[in-house]
Amino acid sequence: MPTRGADVIAETRTLVCDLCGAATSIDPLPPVLFITGASGAGKTTLYEALVGTVDEAILIDADLLWGVDPAHNDAESGYRQFRGLILHLAERLAKNGKAVVVEGSCMPDQYESLGERWYFSDTAYIGSSVQTTSSNAGS
């Protein structure tokens, strides 16, 4: 179960569970990359273009996990339980030695503030956006 706010001791890379108080050393895993953006911005299109073509990373479509638990729809917490679930899944997959790419809308602070983020050697965010052009350009 994802924690509700684990503490991280960055100097020693130790995660302290807020539920039971257990301290666990963190061996840094490969990085996690988030493809994010507003609805309709092209995140899924980019994700689908990567599926089957990227051997260096494992891909996760976060939207597929959204309905797993009704408690995920908690805007007040920044969707803490949902974000924790995503990071726990990414952590398990990264143990295969590959980076993880997560496609789904988010703000960086929704992940960076979580204790589970410290499992990864690094995180990065790519913002997807749609650029529209007028079909009458130059007329």
At the fourth level of CATH, the homologous superfamily is P-loop containing nucleotide triphosphate hydrolases
| Uncertain stretches | none
Shape: globular
Helix content: 10-25%
CATH architecture: 3-Layer(aba) Sandwich
Average pLDDT figure: 85
Distance between the termini: 59 Å
Q: How big a fraction of the residues is strand?
A: 15-25%
Q: Give the CATH topology.
A: Rossmann fold
Biggest sheet details: 4 strands, parallel
- Rg over alpha carbons: 17 Å
How would you characterize this protein structure?
The structure is a single chain. The chain is of the alpha/beta class. It has one domain (27-127): Rossmann fold, CATH 3.40.50.300. Helix content is 20%, strand content 21%. The protein has 3 helices and 7 strands. A 4-stranded parallel sheet has the order 5-6-4-7, sandwiched between helices. Strand 1 and strand 2 (14-16) form a beta hairpin. The longest helix has 15 residues, at 80-94. It starts with 6 loop residues before the first strand and ends in a 12-residue tail after the last strand. The model has no long low-confidence stretch (mean pLDDT 85).
Spell out the key features of this protein.
139 residues; Rossmann fold; 4-stranded parallel sheet; 3 helices; 20% helix
In short:
With about 140 residues, the chain is α/β, with parallel strands linked by helices. The longest helix is centred in the middle third of the chain and has 15 residues, at about 80-95. The strands form 2 sheets. Strands 5-6-4-7 form a 4-stranded parallel sheet, sandwiched between helices. It has a 3-stranded antiparallel sheet with strand order 1-2-3, with no helix packed on it.
